[in-house]
Amino acid sequence: MAQLVESPTFVTGEPSQPKIRGKENLPLRSDTDATEHASDKLDGIEKTLPAQFVGKGEAEAQRSPPFSHPRHRKSGSLRLNGAFKQPKASDRAVEEIRDGDGKHSTTTKLSFDDQPKRQKSQRELVSGRRAGARWERSHIHFAPLSIPFQRRLQTLMVLAHTLCIALFLTAYFLLCSIPLFWPLLFPYTIYVLLSQAPQSGQLSHRSPLLRSLPIWSLFASYFPARLHRSAPLEPTRKYIFGYHPHGIISHGAFAAFATEALGFSQLFPGITNTLLTLDTNFRIPFYRDYALALGLASVSRESCENILSQGGPNGEGMGRAITIVVGGARESLDARPHSLRLVLKRRKGFVKLAIRTGADLVPVLAFGENDLYDQVTSESHPVVHRMQMLVKNCMGFTVPLFHARGVFNYDVGLMPYRKPLNVVVGRPVKVVQSKKGAPVDERYVDEIHALYVRELERIWEEWRERFAVDERVVLSIVE
Hints:
The protein is of the alpha/beta class. The chain has helices spanning 18-23, 31-47, 57-63, 117-123, 133-136, 149-162, 164-176, 182-194, 197-200, 208-211, 215-221, 251-258, 264-267, 287-293, 301-309, 328-332, 349-357, 382-395, 442-467, and strands at residues 75-76, 78-80, 83-85, 92-98, 104-110, 225-229, 239-244, 272-277, 297-298, 320-325, 340-343, 360-367, 374-375, 402-403, 421-425, 475-478.
């Protein structure tokens, strides 16, 4: 059995006094003895120094590294040149302790109570407010200067389209202030007020060149906007496109049906589409010529019937189409992000028009149209909402209180947000034309209207996962 072997312990009779052990060349027994022995030797050296070296101990002590020990407890004096001196705030302190034999020992250390003056000055430093902090907390984010030139052109085109009515009116009144142009402006103003070109249905002012200019591609790519077709349309029929939702300015309808930026003629060859707007827009000088050149026409009943009963290969409107924003001004008041409320339940006039003219109904749903602007809600501002409805009932249009982004910032302004616009054209709903002069059957109107709503809901359910940005949006058909 193995046994545990321990190291032997030796007991000697060595002296414990440091001086005696030093004379016998024995190692000192503790750090305290070593400190006392070293200080005694230093005293002896100082007594033998020449006079020119006396008094330099304080400077040397300041350059010497501190010596401390965990056994130190009591502060004492600093030994300099053989004498004791009270330490300054920057001097090293001296501790006095006793060893086991009752001998005194001194050691030096740095006082922990004295901190450098630089730290004290930092604690007392008082600073003013930081420049630019308020701008960093601002909710307005400005566009950087490194925006690509193409995006600048896109913004310019959308800005020009948004302000085109104001720009044309400004130019007209500016010319009116110059008497030299009065002989031209007076007959032109009379012509604008009495012209029947927007209702004639002849589309004589339509300019394919203006509709296909490259600048409209810049306009459409601002969002960006895309046009999608669910099914091809026969060029031997005539159609009524119902555009939903109205939004604030219907940018998607303009890009898809008033220009060739999205390739309408490629998707629907042989179809001549006309976007309809309020008749009052064609009483604005200069703007009415611009709108007629783009192929726009009045949304009045007379205009719709003339477009769908004239022209085309057979002279009876074959291959012609009109686009109506069905919700109108009332629906524009519900246009806000994360919402899709369509004013459609009681809107059956376009269905009756389709039955009288024999035009098929084509529902169109624009994903993202309501996300282009923020608008004041009727719940938070009921008085404002009542005023808007009053203007709508009296004048036929209303003015939504909206805002979005600006030209040089992303938070405040009348420019639309850069949100994707996907205009999906659904399948046509076949309509049987009623006899000329015969009253329209209301039951047949309700049947066609139900088929139209069903096709509109199909577009939403089939393409919402691909084109709807917010999954919480729910399609609701009201009024």
